[in-house]
């Protein structure tokens, strides 16, 4: 069954943050693991926040800069998901789905950044 993912990066990053927050709440409730879940919560919510900041950037360079921050936060989220999964020995569908979505978001952000940088170059 194919997932119907939103096309808009803003919507996808919002849903990713929401799903990560739900996972963090479940983990905190069941395992009392607060340090890693707090880190994941921060990085996952920062992805979408910086995408929104980028869309209101004052210049193309500002747009690229904010998306680069979002890209870094997405990569950090992947790290925290992997660490939580390994530390708590979680192999659920939800963990795998979040890892996949984070990797897809990372690729999308990378593509947007590269294309935007190429547009800045003089011809």
Short description:
This protein is an all-alpha fold and 123 residues long.
Would you mind describing this structure in some detail?
Helix content is 81%, strand content 0%. 28% of the residues are buried. Helix 1 runs antiparallel to helix 4. With 123 residues, it is mostly helical. The radius of gyration is 15 Å and the shape is elongated. It has a single domain, classed as de novo design (two linked rop proteins) (Up-down Bundle), CATH 1.20.1440.60.
The CATH class label is: Mainly Alpha
Largest sheet: none
Structural category is mainly alpha
User: What is the residue-mean pLDDT, rounded to a whole number?
Assistant: 91
Uncertain runs are: none
List the helices and strands and how they pair.
Elements: H1 9-31, H2 35-55, H3 60-87, H4 93-120
Helix pairs in contact: 1-2, 1-4, 2-3, 3-4
List keywords for this structure.
123 residues; mainly alpha; 4 helices; elongated
């Amino acid at each position: 069954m194919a997932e119907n993912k939103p096309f808009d990066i803003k919507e996808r990053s919002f849903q990713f943050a929401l799903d990560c927050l739900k996972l963090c709440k479940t983990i905190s409730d069941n395992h009392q693991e607060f340090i890693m879940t707090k880190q994941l919560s921060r990085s996952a919510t920062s992805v979408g926040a910086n995408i929104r900041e980028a869309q209101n950037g004052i210049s193309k360079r500002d747009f690229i800069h904010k998306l680069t921050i979002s890209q870094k936060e997405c990569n950090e989220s992947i790290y925290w998901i992997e660490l939580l999964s390994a530390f708590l020995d979680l192999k659920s569908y939800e963990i795998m789905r979040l890892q996949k979505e984070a990797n897809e978001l990372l690729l999308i952000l990378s593509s947007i950044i590269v294309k935007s940088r190429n547009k800045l170059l003089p011809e």
